[in-house]
Amino acid sequence: MPHADSSYLNIVNNCLSKGAQLVAVTKTQPIDRIMPLYQAGQRVFGENRVQELITKKQQMPQDCQWHLIGHLQTNKVKDVLPHVELIHSLDRLKLWEALETECQKAGVQISCLLQIKVAAEETKYGWDPEELDEVLKDKMPLRFENVKLKGIMGMTTFTDDMEIVRKELKTIANVYHHIKSNYFDGDSTFSVLSMGMSGDYQIALEEGSTMVRIGSLLFS
Ligand SMILES: *Cc1c(COP(=O)(O)O)cnc(C)c1O
């Protein structure tokens, strides 16, 4: 990774020039390493664990927004709801239902992205795109009123082979456009394509990402 590229301002300018939003992924980073990003103007932060997100939110200035980007267990839904602006990791029907139920009880709404799985790795969570298509066909008419679907999130295989990475990014973008045109036609709020991390965010921007989630590159 070229070091000249790893400053916060370079990264944020690369994103802005493509009209994309930067989520600064702060997992495992202490507050004194996160504050300089805040001081440079960053307000949107991503965490992959509920407890760490809540703890950091309490320690950081109040005008930060927090995104949950990691796998969410249904028994943590209630805890996380009051603290997050966006959940990137809506990856299964059971979670969708649990979010809807808890939001109804609390009288709130939550914005979510559908996490799809295109990477070859077995460990990655997410909907298989075909399975997601079936679920949306089946469930969208039920109108989950409190869970607001805003877009798609995807991750690529961890590899140095940038051809594989680009191909997967194209697939994620295609799934996004397919779902948007089939199920959210005319709904301008379904507009988030969350893809791109430290190793592939520039390619992700070229492939149409509107939101990148960058951690290690910001702290290197
Ligand atoms: C850790 C993480 C990131 C950021 O990864 P880096 O390679 O450190 O930029 C992005 N998305 C998710 C879901 C993550 O867990």
Which small-molecule ligands are present, each listed once?
A: pyridoxal-5'-phosphate
| Strand composition percent | 15-25%
Question: Main beta sheet: strand number and arrangement?
Answer: 8 strands, parallel
Give the % helix. Answer: 25-40%
SSE pattern, N- to C-terminal: HEHEHEHEHEHEHEHE
Assembly classification: single chain
Tell me, rounded to a whole number, the average pLDDT. 94
**Spans where pLDDT lies below 50 across 5 or more residues:** none
CA distance, first residue to last residue: 10 Å
Rough shape? globular
Number of helices: 8
Structural class: alpha/beta
What gyration radius follows from the Cα positions, in whole Å?
A: 17 Å
Strand order of the biggest β-sheet? 7-6-5-4-3-2-1-8
Number of strands: 8
Description:
Helix content is 39%, strand content 19%. Strand 1, helix 2 and strand 2 form a beta-alpha-beta unit. An eight-stranded parallel sheet has the order 7-6-5-4-3-2-1-8. It is of the alpha/beta class and 220 residues long. The chain is built from eight helices and eight strands; from the N terminus they run αβαβαβαβαβαβαβαβ. The structure holds pyridoxal-5'-phosphate (PLP). The site of pyridoxal-5'-phosphate has 13 residues, from strand 8.
What characteristics describe this protein?
eight-stranded parallel β-sheet; 8 strands; alpha/beta; binds pyridoxal-5'-phosphate; 220 residues
Q: What layout of secondary structure does this protein have?
A:
Blueprint: H1 8-17, E1 21-25, H2 31-39, E2 44-47, H3 50-59, E3 65-68, H4 77-80, E4 86-90, H5 93-106, E5 110-117, H6 129-139, E6 147-155, H7 162-183, E7 192-194, H8 201-206, E8 211-214
The structure holds pyridoxal-5'-phosphate.
